[in-house]
């Protein structure tokens, strides 16, 4: 029995997989920027966090195109892509929203719901991808909105941060329900999460 070579898993990565890791690293960078904002109170770090999500999307688009161009894809690559997407388009946008001030009990419940929907959406895609591809190398359509559509939410948060509309100054203000806070703006995350787990068919371009 041959002894596995050091870093043998890394040696098996295709070029597209490295772009996928770029996606994940961008998402982690956004999380660190949010943490820095919470430590320093400097809103520029929130804007840095928001800016890293489009970079993650660029890596996400490129990894798929490179895989098709080189005609090299794998189950590992698909799983890696989903895990990276959870970080960059699920956890990071929720963390940015928290940093912007959506920190009430109801806000947190909605943000957890959003991330759970994103994870569920990606899991459903992975187990149905073969059926949806109908024998081709590409799925014909998405069921539910793709998780990168959270870019729209991030764009709204970037605009709010740029205008200084943070904490209880968030657009829509704050409601007190049963002694706990709810920022109405967080409801856009509830809508986004619900659309991700819906059965809406969206053609894949």
UniProtKB/TrEMBL annotation:
Gene responsible for this protein: pssA
Catalytic activity: a CDP-1,2-diacyl-sn-glycerol + L-serine = a 1,2-diacyl-sn-glycero-3-phospho-L-serine + CMP + H(+)
Name of the molecule in the record: CDP-diacylglycerol--serine O-phosphatidyltransferase
The organism of origin for this protein: Pelomonas baiyunensis
Top-level taxon of origin: Bacteria
Signal peptide bounds: none
Keyword line: Lipid biosynthesis, Lipid metabolism, Membrane, Phospholipid biosynthesis, Phospholipid metabolism, Transferase, Transmembrane, Transmembrane helix
EC numbers for this chain: 2.7.8.8
PROSITE patterns attached to this UniProt entry: CDP_ALCOHOL_P_TRANSF (PS00379)
């Amino acid at each position: 029995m041959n002894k596995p070579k050091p870093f043998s898993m890394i040696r098996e990565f295709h070029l597209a997989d490295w772009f996928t890791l770029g996606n994940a690293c961008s998402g982690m960078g956004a999380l660190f920027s949010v943490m820095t904002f919470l430590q320093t109170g400097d809103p520029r770090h929130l804007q840095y966090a928001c800016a890293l999500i489009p970079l993650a999307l660029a890596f996400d688009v490129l990894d798929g195109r490179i895989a098709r161009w080189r005609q090299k894809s794998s189950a590992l690559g698909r799983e890696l892509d989903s895990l990276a997407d959870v970080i960059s388009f699920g956890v990071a946008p929720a963390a940015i929203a928290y940093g912007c001030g959506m920190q009430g009990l109801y806000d947190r419940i909605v943000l957890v719901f959003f991330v759970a929907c994103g994870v569920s959406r990606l899991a459903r895609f992975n187990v149905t991808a073969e059926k949806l591809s109908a024998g081709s190398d590409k799925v014909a359509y998405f069921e539910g909105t793709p998780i990168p559509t959270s870019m729209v939410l991030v764009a709204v948060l970037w605009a709010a941060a740029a205008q200084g509309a943070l904490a209880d100054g968030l657009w829509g203000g704050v409601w007190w329900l049963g002694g706990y806070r709810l920022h109405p703006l967080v409801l856009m995350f509830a809508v986004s999460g619900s659309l991700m787990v819906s059965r809406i068919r969206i053609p894949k371009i």
